[in-house]
Design brief:
Distance between the termini: 145 Å
Shape: elongated
Oligomer: single chain
Length: about 675
């Protein structure tokens, strides 16, 4: 019995030990296996602090490689609470330099367990000031800051970033994933007493660089002239868009009022809005170009057809529409030149609603262009089944439809280039980066035939030469365009305002080989408000400067040429052959008489006193640009008809003529090529 008791005691001890060990092992297993993730996270939170290092954003360039947006390394200041023994003193010393409350700084240091960022991206003078204080526990870390060296230039296209270097507008937002890159990390390790003992960093991957289609110089010209127009007209806002009509690339997008993207937060939202893509407006009479194109292409009208404009009023489905001027009978060409509302409505009625709707859709009205900018507005074009009986009368003159500036400039570019619609583009190239960039640009579409486009181009040239666009006439270049004056809707009444207008002018130059299409829109100008009056001069100034900058050869005499011709005229010209009947008209020195089409036999020459005459070259087989350049070198004034290669010229090759002589050249397909012949000289 006594021998059993020790065994029993040992058994109890052994069982107790086994149970205790099982409990300990169970608890350890529970903590290590089941709760591992939770406690590991807590330990990391206590021992580590991770700071994200913003990556260096890619550079944004203009089309010629000039920097528009860059990132520069700047110092951010941190405080290590384990090293700072007197947080109150440190906060008091740093507060004036950082422009932050001392109480806020002290609270931030006290509450932190590991180094904490006290202020981001400080200017060099502030960094130097803090370094001179030599404060224990205060250190600096490099971070990137976005800088726009040209300040307001192209601000709406470039956009801006927030304090965390994330894109918040324009290209900075649209391509943020590519431009931003991949952030790096800085990990700080601390012991149980919150003392910092180690730090590791992983480098950030820089973002991709973006090359825009913009040209910095053209952008500056557009913004300068828009600013001048706003000051002169007191308009609420304005937009100027310059486009290459042969590719759809935007060379300039100017918007006023503007902002400085270096300090975008200090400007209201409406100022930061890119009106070129986001603000839709009723285009008014500039839309008559679309109306005329549809009518001519579908055989509903010819430029020489006569239209009774009924002295300024027309009734459409019981709705009386008044013209801006009481016109009588006008040709279709003059309807566009003088911007007759009644005439345009009658032409649209000939075309018919279904064909008119097809034409508008073909030109991209009511559709997104797909431009690489955020917030694009598709505009408004109601489906045909939702039209009222009088809608065709409104649409014919640019009402009941809204467009954005990039939509209308693309539509007019299609007329300029021979009928091909290129969707507006702003991004030329994306270089490098870790994120792939794909942008499915819409394929060019033939929206009207080349013959119709050529006819409308000629009609639009008449607008500038004889119609409402006279203020837009260029010095040294031919140009075609259309003015627009659209009444705005009064928000208070829901009706058209009698004194608030969107005034616009859109055109291209030179006529026969367009290099630029330019749109000017001014919102609510004070005083003069007709599009030709207020928008035409802006178009003229922008176009002349841009064409000169691009070294485009002049295709008509400039003012200086006219003055030179007048001085030469005073030297009593010596007749070498028969003199033209109308003499030296408008700066030209014609060598022969011509008919309306510019082709008539006979090629006598004329010289000004001792001035040497020039010899007309053989232009057969040359392109429009080559002919223009050849005539420009010799001082001849080319009148170009058609497209393709030169087939006929109005003055025989080898003929001597005076500088300033008008030389008419017909173009067509190479198969029809004929040698230059003596068909007469143009005036």
């Amino acid at each position: 019995m006594e021998q059993r008791r020790p065994r029993l005691r040992w058994l109890v001890v052994w069982v107790f030990a086994v149970v205790w060990m099982a409990a300990v092992l169970g608890r350890l297993s529970y903590l290590q296996l089941i709760c591992y993730g939770e406690y590991f996270t807590k330990a990391q939170h206590q021992q580590q602090r991770v700071f994200e290092i913003s990556p260096k954003r890619g550079v944004i360039y203009d089309r010629k490689g000039r920097e528009l947006a860059i990132s520069l390394p700047m110092d951010s200041v941190f405080g290590d609470p384990a090293e700072i023994t007197d947080a109150e003193m440190v906060a008091r010393l740093l507060a004036p330099a950082l422009a932050i409350s001392a109480d806020d700084l002290e609270t931030k240091i006290h509450e932190a367990r590991t180094p904490v960022r006290l202020a981001k991206k400080l200017p060099p003078e502030t960094v130097q000031r803090i370094q001179d204080m030599n404060l224990r526990g205060v250190f600096f870390q490099k971070e990137n800051r976005r800088v726009y060296p040209q300040r307001e230039l192209a601000a709406h296209v470039l956009g801006y970033v927030d304090v965390d270097e994330k894109g918040n507008g324009g290209i900075e937002y649209a391509l943020d994933k590519q431009i931003r890159g991949r952030p790096g990390k800085m990990m700080v390790m601390a012991d149980g007493r919150r003392r910092w003992y180690d730090r590791t960093e992983s480098a950030a991957d820089p973002g991709a660089s973006v090359v825009l289609t913009l040209d910095q110089t053209i952008q500056y010209i557009a913004e300068k002239e828009l600013e001048r127009a706003i000051e002169e007209t007191h308009a609420k806002n304005g937009t100027v868009v310059v486009q290459d009509p042969n590719s759809g690339q935007l060379l300039a997008v100017a918007v006023r009022p503007t902002f400085d993207p270096n300090n975008a937060g200090s400007f209201p939202d409406d100022v930061r809005m890119d009106r070129a893509v986001s603000a839709a407006y009723e285009p008014g009479s500039t839309f008559k170009v679309v109306t005329m194109t549809g009518a001519i292409e579908n055989g509903a009208a010819r430029p020489t057809d006569l239209v009774d404009c009924q002295m300024g009023s027309i009734l459409v489905a019981g709705r009386l529409i008044h013209d801006w001027h009481p016109f009588g009978v006008l040709s279709v060409q003059d309807v566009l030149a003088h911007s007759s509302d009644v005439g345009s409505i009658k032409i649209a009625l000939r075309l018919g609603a279904p064909k008119f709707y097809e034409t508008m859709r073909a030109f991209g009205v009511g559709q997104l262009t797909g431009i690489e900018l955020p917030g694009e507005n598709r505009g408004l074009l109601r489906p045909l089944e939702n039209w009222t009986a009088s809608s065709i009368g409104s649409l014919a003159i640019g009402q009941e439809v809204s467009v954005t500036p990039v939509q209308i400039v693309s539509a007019i570019s299609a007329i300029a280039n021979g009928g091909t619609l290129y969707r507006s583009r702003i991004v030329k190239e994306v270089r490098g980066g870790t994120s792939a960039y794909t942008h499915a640009a819409a394929e060019p579409e033939q929206v009207t035939d080349a013959r119709t486009a050529a006819t409308v181009r000629e009609m639009m040239e008449t607008v500038i030469l004889e119609g409402t666009g006279k203020p837009a006439r260029l010095d040294g270049y031919t140009a075609a365009g259309k003015s627009g004056t659209a009444q705005k809707i009064d928000p208070a009444t829901g009706r058209y305002s009698p004194n608030q207008y969107n005034s616009s002018f859109v055109g291209f130059a030179p006529v026969n080989d367009p290099v630029v299409t330019i749109l000017v829109v001014l919102d609510s100008p004070v005083g003069a408000h007709h599009g030709g009056e207020v928008g035409g001069p802006v178009f003229k100034r922008v176009a002349e400067q841009v064409l000169s900058y691009l070294d485009v050869p002049r295709d008509v005499p400039s003012t200086s040429d006219v003055q030179t011709a007048k001085k030469s005229d005073q030297a009593q010209p010596t007749e070498i052959g028969d003199k033209g009947s109308d003499g030296n008209q408008a700066g030209y020195a014609p060598s022969v008489e011509v008919d309306k089409d510019g082709l008539k036999p006979g090629a006598p020459t004329i010289a000004f006193g001792d001035q040497e005459a020039v010899v007309v070259p053989n232009l057969a087989g040359q392109t429009v640009r080559s002919v223009t350049e050849a005539c420009s070198r010799l001082g001849l004034v080319p009148a170009l008809i058609g497209s393709g290669v030169a087939l006929e010229q109005s003055v025989e090759a080898g003929t001597q003529v005076a500088r300033g002589t008008r030389l008419t050249v017909r173009f067509g397909k190479a198969g029809r090529l004929m040698p230059a012949s003596a068909n007469g000289a143009g005036n």
